[in-house]
Amino acid sequence: MSLVTATIKRDLLLAARNPGEWLNPLMFFLMVAALFPLAVDPDPKFLSKIAGGVIWVAALLATLLSLDALYKADVEDGSLEQWLASGESLYGMALGKALVHWCISGLPLTIMSPVLGLMLSLPADAYAALLLSLLVGTPVLSLLGAVGAALTAGVRSGGLLLSLLILPLYIPVLIFSASAVYHAGIGMDYNGQIGFLGALLALAACLTPFAAAAALKLNLSR
Amino acid sequence: MWQWLKQLYHRLGSPKWFYEITGKWIPWLAVLSVLGCVAGLVLGLAYAPADYLQGNSFRIIYIHVPAAIIAQSAYVMMAVAGAVYLVWKMKMAAWVAKVIAPIGASFCLIALFTGAIWGKPTWGTWWVWDARLTSMLMLLFLYFGVIALQQAMDSEESGFKAAAILALVGLVNIPIIKYSVEWWNTLHQPATLKLTEKPSMATEMLIPLLIMIFTTYLFFALLIILRTRNEILWHERKRSWVKEILEH
């Protein structure tokens, strides 16, 4: 297990020393959300209706943007080969990598989201639902995305391909979380949607590392 | 029975055996699917009574439902073939999985297209963001993803493997499509056919539908066989038995 924690520590340190890695998706998140009032309608009444969905779509795209680099460096500099040679489980590595990705993308997005809620005049009742849905939902995005990143790590111009593979799989998360924020905004109960997100998270945390590990081996066999 | 299945499985792994045996099946499958299609469509379009609510517009069910069923079972079949390839490294399974992807995507497109045509007179709109429709659209995107990933890889083998992994991950979508009409209160009507219950439609309407579903499966099998044979010929082109066939 020590190798997994060492990798997590190393990756977090790399992200801390190279702030662009986690700041750029965050800026992207802000800008995408800012485009909607400009392009659609700046009327606060209208914005409060779509705010939850817009924030979620922006978070999803920002996550996607930062996924491309997840395994690229490790494939290129041979860290991945060393990992396989060490005999340590790839399952742990895949899970650790997804965790690191969430720490540098999902977590900052979640912390940042109330500011966006303010800009998009999100109803006051919906903030708790927004934070909760992002907190439970963004790890699912990282876990699923890690599978796509592992599959496309060795492909030239894999970024676009990655979005093509992963976006359909993101749709259930988007549906449940946007619906949770919307229902909270109109004063309804949203436990069901958060429960579904929790179930998705449990499922993704158990199963996606297997797929990611298989995909990583695929990159090594070439 | 088990022994026989095991033997069949091992034989399926041999491209030569597959090529020879399916060569005999092609005329039968072709004739049966044409006959079944004509019978099903004539019965369905001309003899089945009009629906008391939807009138004649319901008749598109004879294309829509078989296409939708095949689109889903094709995906499951592709994922299973991919898993067989990942576990047992059977080349035939990889070729079958590769061949199914575009066929399944086509059936998915047909189901969405006929659904849109059916939706216009009955719901008053071509498209709604309903759970069943959205999840079918997801299925189409998944097919596109599998095809794109397979083609993006440098070596064909890693393309097969990557596509198989993606297909297995995407398998979660199948129960979502299947139960979307039951879990959510949707505009799309509930399943017409269920194994456990009495069918919700009249026998004169049901028989053509069953014929069409069966026929579409046959047609699907025919398409898979034809395309897999091409794959076999291409991949085994340096083998002596293929050279013999090509010389004649």
User: How is the main sheet of chain A built?
Assistant: none
Low-confidence stretches of chain B: none
Given helix and strand content, the structural type of chain B is: mainly alpha
The amount of helix of chain B comes to: over 70%
Instruction: Show the largest interface.
Output: A-B, 25 and 24 residues
What is the CA–CA distance across the termini of chain A? 27 Å
Q: Gyration radius of chain B, to the nearest Å? A: 20 Å
Report the average pLDDT across residues of chain A.
Answer: 88
Mean pLDDT of chain B: 86
CA gyration radius of chain A, whole angstroms: 18 Å
Order of helices and strands of chain B: HHHHHHHHH
**Kindly, what is the distance between the CA atoms of the first and last residues of chain B, rounded to a whole number of angstroms?**
38 Å
What is the overall number of helices of chain B? 9
The total tally of domains of chain B equals 1
Proportion of residues in extended strands of chain A: under 5%
Q: Structurally, how many domains make up the residues of chain A?
A: 1
Number of helices of chain A: 9
Count the strands of chain A?
Answer: 0
